[in-house]
Amino acid sequence: MMQTELTSTELTSSELESSELETDVATGNGSTDGARDGAQGAQDGTQDVGGARLTVLAGPTAVGKGTVAADIRERFPEIWISVSATTRKARPNEVHGVHYLFVSDEEFDRMIADDELLEWAVVHKAARYGTPRQPVLDKLAEGRPALLEIDLQGARQVRETMPEAHFVFLAPPSWDELVRRLVGRGTETAEERERRLETATLELASEKEFDVTIVNASVREAADQLVKLIRSPNISGKS
Q1: CB atoms < 10 A from the CB of 79, how many?
Q2: Long-range contacts of 229-236, Cβ-Cβ distance < 8 Å, separation of 24 or more
Q3: Count of domains for the chain
Q4: Is residue 239 part of a domain?
Q5: What gap in Å lies between CA 121 and CA 157, rounded to an integer?
Q6: According to the model, what pLDDT value does residue 18 have?
Q7: How far apart are CA 124 and CA 117, in angstroms?
Q8: Which residues 6+ apart lie within 8 Å of 181 measured at CB?
Q9: Domain of 186, in residue numbers
Q10: How far is residue 25's CA from residue 196's CA, in Å, rounded to a whole number?
């Protein structure tokens, strides 16, 4: 599969501050840390959504996926962005139903049992995250462009059931910048940061699995590039 890389410009200080909104959805690749823990979130077969477009955005922890999605939500309300369910506690300034659907372990168990999740993951052997299935299918049935901002393993599950979706990898300008952003968030302990950085090395290696790469050096420009791809008839580089 061909892959196109799109690079944005320098990140501003205000955009770096907004990176605290970056969502906590990192998981491993080929290791027990962040593994599925038996997850069976995706159904067999593909979903029929007609001609509507689904775009999946993934990338390493702290790269700014949540911040880019938040910018699109604010400036391009016509693009529907899925809200993931999670069993972790809300961070300061996170709003239920906007950043995440914060649910109990019992409620998450029920969602799995009732096959309500398009994908789900156990992240860092702790909290679980998942994408409610029906809202995605409903928006696509309406013909509305839809965006999933999820982790790597979730993106792989979606590819199994919805291979017609477009998959975009959000990359940092450099490894040093990724480390700086993760440390700058100040939302994890030193041990948690070390674990996330180990996972990030595995996640960066998955870039080749995606159709397009956008380098997030500027939140605004990265968001603009992603919206352009969402609106285009075909993502450049997708066979």
Answers
A1: 20
A2: 229/55, 229/166, 229/168, 230/53, 230/55, 230/79, 230/145, 230/147, 230/166, 231/145, 235/4, 235/166, 235/168, 235/211, 236/4, 236/212
A3: 1
A4: no
A5: 10
A6: 35
A7: 19
A8: 16, 19, 22, 62, 63, 64, 172
A9: 4-231
A10: 10
DSSP for residue 100: B
For 146, phi and psi rounded to 5 degrees?
A: -125, 145
* 178 in any annotated domain: yes
Task: State the pLDDT confidence band at 149, using cuts at 50, 70 and 90.
Answer: very high
Side chain identity at residue 198, one-letter code: E
Query: Which domain CATH number covers 178?
Result: 3.40.50.300
- Coil, helix or strand at residue 92: coil
Lowest mean pLDDT among 4-13, 213-222, 227-236: 4-13
pLDDT digits (tens, 9 = 90+) for 152-208: 989 999 999 999 999 999 999 999 999 888 887 767 778 877 887 888 888 999 999
Strand order in the sheet with 101-102: 101-102, 85-86, 128-132, 117-122
Among residues 17, 38, 71, the alpha carbon closest in space to that of 220 is found at 71
Residues 58, 28: Cα–Cα separation, whole Å: 13
